[in-house]
Each structure stands twice: as structure tokens, then as C-alpha cells.
Amino acid sequence: MSQAKSINYYKELIDLKDVEGIEAQFQRLLDVSIESIQDLENWIEDEKNLRFEIEEALTGHLVDFYRNTEDPHIKSTYLQDQQVIQPLLMTYEAKLNDKCCESPYFNELDENRYGLMKRFRESKVKLFRKENIPLLVKEQELCTKYSEIMGGLTVEWDGEEKPFPFIESQLDNLDRNVREKAYHLIRAAYRQIKPDTDALMDELVQLRHQIAINAGFENYRDYMFVAKNREYSIEDCYDFHENVEKHIIPAWNRLAEVFKSKLGVETYLPWDNTAKLLKNPPYAETSELLDGVAEMLGKTDPYFSDRLQYMREHGLLDLGDRKGKSPGGFCVPLPVSGDTFVFANFSPSFFSLIALIHEMGHAVNGYLQASEQGPIEEFQWRAEIAELYSHGMELLLLDKFNLFYPEEEEFKSAQREELRRAFTMLFGPLSGDLFQHWMYTNPQHTAKERDEKFYEISKRYGLSPVDTTGFEEVIGMSWIGTLHFIQYPFYDIEYSMSMLGALQLLENYQKNSQQAVEFYKKGASADYSQSIAAIYKETGVDFDFSESTVKRMGEFLEKVIQDINS
């Protein structure tokens, strides 16, 4: 897909290079006299509009950089945002939060409309320390460095230089020798960048620990629970880790025996633990991927496919792989335009098909939310909610994979792989969450200890059925490929929590497909100032990760896979 010019997908209503002008606008907000509850509500609205203008420009510059990490002008703009604009925003955000919270009318704000915002602002006031601003800027610089390292990573394949996502896609190859070759090349590439990424992670851990200490916390883990305004406790997370290990991993081990049988192998090796029962990639060109996903979406609900078509026509998608493009994939809202942009670095593979469906779940959520409630504000955005609609979209489209895999056995294999992915989303992000709990409560750990802990946790969870003998070192360093650990700390367990909700959505869909889709749309357009539990309820599911629910959903998932096999 050709790279669209920035003007086609975001609005720059504010010049981020005009630092004095931005400061003047913030200062005007600080100088406003608030003499009534109505004045305060008007002030909050004016502040929101200014933030949205800045946010859209910042997001556009970030996407530009991820699309081309090697362009010096784009990089310069992005770094100026991180080094100049972000510190400015942090400074004025703190002052604006103080002004709002200290207003005599703050406690008179309607709790239903402003309650979440009030709690969010109060936690921001609690966490803010001026001395943390340069540390937060440095943190972003290190994240940018990681994007550059990964964006420039290429691997030689059959004498030809290939982008890293192409090599990763070969892990899905039906030929076991090809998968093994890809696995070793990926690990060799990780080994090549390991010194730089180790140094980067070491610095990030110390930086984040100091941010937490400055804010009065014992460690960064505890700091992040307050920063994220989580509606559950640290102990709840540990219980969830335990429940999944107790009830999901045994089922995962049983299913591994099914996959081993279908593969015809006696030993399940690391390169067998991928989507490798599908004979061919589901598409050759990005246009085929988009056409097929549009049809899948349309058969589920016309509005879903309408949004994809709109995004195609307005340059709001960049999916293909190329050198210099950052790894990963994401969907970001553009609050002024009312649009969403989907970025990905895809090579033809089953994973890229699922990833696009996943990101379209985010996009549909964004468009429904914007049309009903307006753009999602920072305090309303919670990953536990956002990921419900991305995982949910994957499962709502489960019965339509025959559009890419028309042969009956291939169709069943694709469904099995998606449901296998549901299993991995229950324990994979959760094990990553446990890894981060350890990292940030043991901030003096060495790089060697970090690798050893990552291997240990991986073996307890996803690699439980895999023979890892001789691969301990390469598995231990494979955290390098998970950008969440670098760029989005403690954004992991939300995937696992939301997957429990998505499985309930699938359960409802199997009983009454039309009703389940309507619930999906209702929840995706709900008032996001409500609690997570209330929004899940509007979607027809429960926000519940207790032992009984984990066990029940694990049994349901296992049954659905067995039904496909029968």
C-alpha cells in the first residue's frame, strides 16, 4: 500500500513548532476566572478542545514516524514533540489539574458525568512531580530508540534481504524445516541487537523506578496501578495469574497433543508452537486481505464493513511491510477528525489476517463511540474495555474464515488456530504481566537474571507443552520482540481479562448471533465514563476473572475446539 501524505489522515489545527503560541493558550486557560459550576463546565470543555487539537497533531506525527523511521525530517518533528512539546504539556497539565481540583465547584460536578474524570485528575495531582518531567522525556527517547532498532532490523533469506515481519511470517509455514530456519534466524537477529536492547531496558527499568520513588512509591509497579486508575488490585492480578495456570494451562497441554498428532511429530519444539497447520498464507497482496476482511465484516454487520471501506478511501490504513517501518500494529484515534488510523507491518500470514480483524475491532469501537458519545477522552480510555471489542471482533468473525480458506479442512484449521490464539491471549499477556511485576519489584536485576526469569515464566505458561531443551538461552532473550515491555509498560494483563469477556460474547453469538452483534455495538458506543463492569454489562457479558469464570471459559473454549475437530 502506498504511503498516504499526512494531510490526508490528520488535521494540524495547531502548529506544534509554535511553542510560545501553545503556552499562551494554556496560560489563557489558567487565567480564566471560574465563578460558578457552569463556568467550570465551560472551562473543562475549552480545555478538552485544546487538548484534542494538540493530541491529533501529536498522533499524526507519531504515525508518520512509525511509517518511516528513516526519514530525517519526520524523525526531527517527532523528536521535537517528545523533547519540547511533551514536557510543556506535562507542566501545564499539572497546573490545569490543580486549577480544576482546587476549584470550590469541583465537588459539585455531576458524578455520573464527571466522576471518572475527577478521580483521574486527582490521581494525576497525586502522581505529579516536576523532577519527573525530564525522566519521562528520556523514557520517550528510549522508546523511540527501540523503534529505530526494530524498524531497521532485516534478515537475509535465501540470499535476499527481507524485512523482519517477513521472517516472522515463515513461522506459519507448513514445512517444518522452513519454520525451524525462520526460528533460528529470528533468534540470531535478536542476539545481534541484544546488547543495545539490554542496555536500553536496563536504563528504562532504573528510570521508571526513579519516577516511582520521586512520586512516593516503593516501586514502579505500585506507581502504575495508580497511574492507570485500575479498578482492581495487585492481589487480584496475582490471583488471576494463579487461576490461569491452574485451569487454562492443563487444557492447553491437552490441546497441544491434538496439534502434535495433526503435525505428525513426537516432540513439540519451539517452531511447532505457531499457526502451522494452514497450507498457504491467506492472501498474497494487501488488497486481497482488505477485500476479504471487508466481506467478513459485512456478513457480520454492514456497519463494520462500511467503516473499513471508509478508511481505505481516506488513507487511514498502512498495512504492508517495508524497510524502515516500525514493527507491530495499532489503531489510534484522531479526536478532531473523528477518525481512526490503523498501522501495521504485515507480511502475508494467518497472524496478519487476525491482526487486521483485531485492529478493525478497535476502529469500529472508535467510530461508534465518536458518533454516539464523542471522542474518547484520556481519562475514559481503559485497555480492559478497548481490547474487549478487538478480541470480540475476532470471535464474531470466526464462522467466516471460509472466505479465506474455502476448503473444509483448511476452514476448520483456521478456526482452530483462532481459538488456539484465544488460549494464548489468556496466558500470554498474563505471563508478560507477571514478568513485569518481577522486573519492577526487583529493579536491580541483571540482564542475565531478566532472561532467566522470562524463560521460567514462559515455561510455566505458553511453553508448558514444548520441549525447550537447549533453547533456554534463546527463549530467555525473546522478550526483546515484545514492544509492550518497552513502550507500554503494564499494558498486558488487560488482553487476558478482555479475552474472558470476548469468549462470553462468542458464547452469546452461538446462541443468538444477531443479538450478540447488537450487544457488541451497544457496548462499543456506551458512555465510557461508567465503570468497566457497567460497560461490559451493556455488551451482554461480565467483567469477571474469578477462578470460576476462568475455569468455565477455559472449558467452553476447549469444547468449541473439540466440536470443530469432530
Automatic annotation (TrEMBL):
Q: Which GO terms describe its biological process?
A: peptide metabolic process; proteolysis
Q: Which keywords describe this protein according to UniProt?
A: Hydrolase, Metal-binding, Metalloprotease, Protease, Zinc
GO MF annotations in UniProt: metal ion binding; metalloendopeptidase activity
Does the keyword Hydrolase feature in the UniProt annotation?
yes
Q: How is the cofactor bound?
A: Binds 1 zinc ion.
Kindly give the InterPro entries that the UniProt entry links to this protein.
Answer: Pept_M3A_M3B, Pept_M3A_M3B_dom, Pept_M3B_oligopep-rel
Q: Where is the Peptidase M3A/M3B catalytic domain?
A: 172-554
What is the top-level taxon of the source organism?
A: Bacteria
Tell me if Lipid metabolism is a UniProt keyword of this record: no
Q: Which family does it belong to?
A: Belongs to the peptidase M3 family.
| Protein name listed in UniProt | Oligoendopeptidase, M3 family
